[in-house]
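Quiz preparation item.
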């Protein structure tokens, strides 16, 4: 069992390396087998097809992203505005540090996550923290600035993160909507991430 788990992870690591080298177009079952040093049939045994590999990578990516959100909130402390900004920065940082994961996570044309409920659940869990903090911040704004809340600007980092899931949330008395259908293309998100880091001097 341990050997099977090790081989499966070896295939995943080879797949990540291929994506980092040449993007999703670089990934094929034959190249994965060559890169991981296994037989041509081994990747099919563990994953079935190319999309299943990408789904597994996406699942790992969402788990890692969720963990980075949790760490960011823990470091930010109890102030909701700082926690929300910290999540946004964590998202941008993840996008730039892990482009291979990011492409698998947000390229809807390459992998249909609705076919993989476990992966979709990890996505919901990761972005659930973002939605939670937006809700806390939104309620705080409504209580503090009831007449001017619509004029409050959205931090650029938060806009990047929320656009990965759907429209930028409304900071007002209406509930924060969650979208599982509208997903940014990777180049747009990376451009947003890069410009955001430059704007904050990173």
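Solution:
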């Amino acid at each position: 069992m341990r050997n099977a788990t090790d081989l499966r992870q070896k295939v995943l690591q080879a797949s990540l390396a291929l994506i980092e080298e040449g993007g999703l177009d670089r990934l094929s079952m034959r190249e994965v087998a060559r890169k991981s040093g296994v037989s041509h049939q081994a990747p099919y045994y563990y994953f079935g097809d190319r999309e299943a590999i990408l789904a597994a990578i996406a699942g790992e990516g969402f788990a890692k992203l969720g963990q980075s959100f949790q760490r960011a909130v823990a470091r930010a402390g109890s102030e909701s505005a700082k926690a929300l900004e910290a999540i946004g920065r964590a998202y941008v940082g993840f996008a730039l540090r892990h482009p291979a994961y990011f492409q698998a996570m947000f390229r809807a044309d390459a992998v249909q996550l609705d076919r993989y409920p476990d992966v979709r659940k990890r996505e919901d869990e990761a972005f659930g923290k973002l939605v939670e903090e937006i809700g806390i911040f939104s309620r705080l704004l409504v209580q503090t600035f009831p007449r001017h809340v619509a004029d409050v600007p959205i931090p650029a980092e938060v806009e990047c993160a929320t656009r990965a899931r759907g429209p930028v949330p409304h900071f007002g008395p209406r509930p924060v909507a969650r979208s599982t259908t509208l997903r940014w293309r990777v180049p747009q998100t990376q451009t947003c991430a890069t410009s955001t880091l430059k704007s904050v001097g990173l």
